[in-house]
Write a structure and sequence with these properties.
The complex is a heterodimer. Chain A is built from 14 helices and no strands. By secondary structure, chain A is mainly alpha-helical. Chain A has a domain of 202 residues: MetI-like (MetI-like fold). In chain A, helix 3 packs across helix 5 and helix 3 packs across helix 14. The longest helix of chain A has 37 residues. Helix content of chain B is 77%, strand content 1%. Chain B has 13 helices and two strands; from the N terminus they run H-H-H-H-E-E-H-H-H-H-H-H-H-H-H. Chain B has a two-stranded antiparallel sheet. The longest helix of chain B is centred in the middle third of the chain and has 40 residues. The mean pLDDT of chain B is 83. Classes of the chains: A mainly alpha, B mainly alpha. At the A-B interface, helix 6, helix 7, helix 12 and helix 14 of A face helix 1, helix 6, helix 7, helix 9 and helix 11 of B.
């Protein structure tokens, strides 16, 4: 909207000019390219995803799932990097080093070291792994669950709709963070970790997606081509999967992008309280939890992880906003 | 007339949801792998006899549906069970801790509304000029930054570095000034505000940002409405158009969002109370989770869900009251 408003003649009278209607993926992509907001969002997301992919390839996946650390990472060979989890030998640990621009800082630890003497820069970089993968995985889970529930409820209507929507309302009535904590702690039998968090967050976000999909389905359901498919004897399942879901997907994509930001926010809170990623796994929320006790002695420990979370979420929010503007012509003027 | 009936109708509608919540929390607490007795013992070795004794004491030897009915029967009478960890009634623990949370959440809302509505209106009025851009960037930061980190940063700046404001606990306005050794209500009130300021901003920033965005969008849409054009054509002063024609309509979605965002605010209070060491419901929830005090966890979840549902009902009623088009669902 605001920043990228350079298109000529955007606005009130496209219909009179006989321009093609503003639909279709190609048009959306073109609009995103023109929208500065969306473009910057994409740059940030691309940057964070590149880091995440690198840490996934370099370390190993077990960090994400079992909290175990890998013996070796390629990053150690690079300047500024160290092993993200391994503790330095007691004698040579340089604990609580300030960052490089501080008078006592050194270039070997650009962002300083944590209370255990590990390089903070490495941990911040590897911290992207948990936040981003959990954010995307949990959102995807919520999207799949919500699509299933919403599509079935919207398509069949009647008592199916009533029953499913009551269930959705129930889940929705518990604030997500509370529900996720309760779920994670009880289902894991008192020892929460990232795997349970993914499922918990996914479950907590089923209602929002279910509602959006349902209302989309309700409007698509009455279309002539659905009627035609039904008349031609296409099975319900195929109508839902092949016709209804693909046709109601655009607004859901916007929502999913914005939701990834919300998910990362919530997962950070979860780890901050100690119910998400567990030490020694590098995770931004978990790092903020650890640094909470060092707020007076080493301020930097509390600053870097928060900045990392903020920039990542901002990327998804920028892209989501841009996408929304591209798909929703209402506010153009 | 209609409004009263609508209120009753909405409240009755909320009951099945709350029953659903009780089933969900009960199921999570009782059907999941960590069974209550093992959680209670927290890894301590216990012989079969002790386990059976505990099971009998808490009625855990009965089938699940009977246990649920017993629990529900208690809930209806205001008995939310017993916290074995603290050896106290759950209802009592919650009543003691609910005050600070309500104070925190409500003040966060006051902060959010008092800032977002004027800023949103000005941004809409001066669309695409520097003020608009700055306010949109502020809103973007607001929705992208974790509330607990804002809290940590506020503590670092205003409590640790500058030493202007306290970094922990609240001063409760409902306690008398003497308990704190304040002389008179003036100082008492001043201390209440001083202690509340940082947590209020930390919790309210996300709300402020969301509301500001909605306010801006709604005002822009509203200013493009036919009725505004008509009023302009009639030569109604711009100020009156803003105040009477555009503003009122634009507030309706705000009301809905205030209700729905209560969910985020209540969840966020757990984090903020953790950061600022506030002895509220969120902190109690955190402690209950750490201690695996499952009756207390169920009780707090129920109460928080109830607060959210009631909040939504209240905003729905406010919406119906303000918007003349709503007919209180009386289609007959």
């Amino acid at each position: 909207m605001a920043v990228g408003e350079s298109q000529v003649g955007s606005g009130s009278e496209p219909a009179e000019k006989g321009v093609e209607p503003d639909t279709g993926w190609r048009n959306t992509v073109r609009k995103i390219k023109q929208d500065t907001t969306a473009r910057w969002g994409l740059y940030v997301i691309g940057f964070v995803l590149a880091i995440t992919t690198y840490t996934l390839v370099d370390g190993n996946l077990s960090r994400l799932t079992f909290g175990a650390m890998s013996d070796f990472t390629f990053a150690e060979a690079l300047p500024f990097f160290e092993h993200p989890e391994r503790l330095p030998a007691p004698g040579e640990a340089e604990t609580n080093q300030p960052p490089v621009f501080h008078a006592d800082g050194s270039l070997s630890h650009p962002l300083g070291t944590d209370p255990n003497g590990r390089d903070y820069f490495t941990r911040i970089v590897y911290g992207a792994q948990v936040s981003v993968t959990v954010g995307i995985a949990a959102t995807f889970l919520g999207l799949v669950g919500g699509t299933a529930v919403g599509a079935v409820a919207g398509y069949y209507g009647g008592w199916v709709d009533d029953a499913l929507m009551r269930a959705v309302e129930t889940v929705y009535a518990i604030p997500p963070l509370i529900l996720i904590i309760v779920f994670t702690v009880f289902v894991s039998g008192g020892s929460p970790d990232v795997r349970f968090a993914i499922v918990g967050v996914g479950l907590a976000f089923v209602p929002v997606f279910a509602r959006i999909i349902r209302s989309e389905v309700l409007s698509v359901r009455e279309m002539d081509y659905i009627e035609a498919a039904r008349a031609a004897g296409v099975k319900d399942r195929n109508i839902i999967l092949r016709h209804i879901i693909p046709n109601s997907f655009a607004p859901v994509m916007v929502y999913a992008t914005l939701q990834i930001g919300v998910t990362i926010l919530i997962v950070a809170g979860l780890s901050f309280l100690g119910f998400g990623a567990q030490p020694p796994t590098p995770d931004w929320g978990e790092m903020l939890n650890t640094s909470h006790g060092y707020m007076h002695s080493n301020v930097w420990l509390s600053i870097w992880p928060g900045l990392a979370i903020m920039i990542t979420i901002m990327g998804f929010n920028l892209f989501g906003d841009g996408l929304q503007d591209a798909l929703d012509p209402r506010l153009e003027d | 007339m209609g409004l009263l009936r609508y209120t009753t109708y909405r409240l009755v509608q909320a009951i099945p949801v709350l029953i659903g919540v009780s089933i969900l929390t009960f199921a999570l607490a009782n059907l999941t792998p960590g069974d209550p007795v093992r959680l209670m013992l927290q890894g301590q070795e216990a012989d079969q006899e002790t386990i059976e004794r505990i099971e009998a004491q808490y009625g855990l030897d009965q089938p699940i549906h009977e246990r649920y009915l017993t629990y529900m029967g208690g809930l209806v009478q205001g008995d939310m069970g017993h916290s074995f960890h603290r050896n106290a009634s759950v209802a009592e623990l919650i009543t003691n801790r609910i005050g600070p949370t309500l104070l925190l959440v409500l003040s966060a809302y006051v902060f959010a509304l008092a800032t977002s509505i004027p800023l949103g209106i000005i941004a809409a009025k001066r669309r695409n000029d520097p003020f608009d851009h700055v306010s949109r960037i502020v809103a973007l930061f607001g929705v992208s930054t974790p509330s607990f980190w804002i809290g940590i940063m506020l503590i670092l700046i205003f409590a640790v570095q500058l030493g202007w404001l306290p970094s922990s606990d609240l001063v409760y306005p409902w306690w008398s000034p003497e308990t704190y050794g304040h002389d008179g209500y003036g100082e008492h009130f001043y201390q209440v505000i001083r202690h509340l300021l940082l947590p209020m901003i930390a919790l309210g920033t996300l709300q402020m940002a969301t509301l500001m965005r909605v306010e801006r969008t709604q005002m822009i849409e509203s200013l493009q409405g036919e009725y505004v054009k008509l009023a302009r054509a009639y030569g109604v002063p711009e100020r009156t158009i803003m105040r009477k024609h555009a503003f009122q309509v634009a507030q309706l979605p705000i009301i809905t969002i205030v209700g729905l965002n209560l969910s985020t605010a209540l969840g966020g209070s757990v984090l903020i109370e953790f950061v600022f060491d506030i002895n509220g419901l969120g902190r109690l929830f955190y402690e209950a989770i750490i201690q695996l005090d499952y009756q207390l966890i169920m009780g707090i979840t129920m109460i928080i869900a109830t607060m959210f549902v009631i909040g939504v009902v209240i905003t729905d009623i406010a919406y119906a009251y303000i918007d003349p088009r709503v007919t209180y669902g009386e289609s007959e």
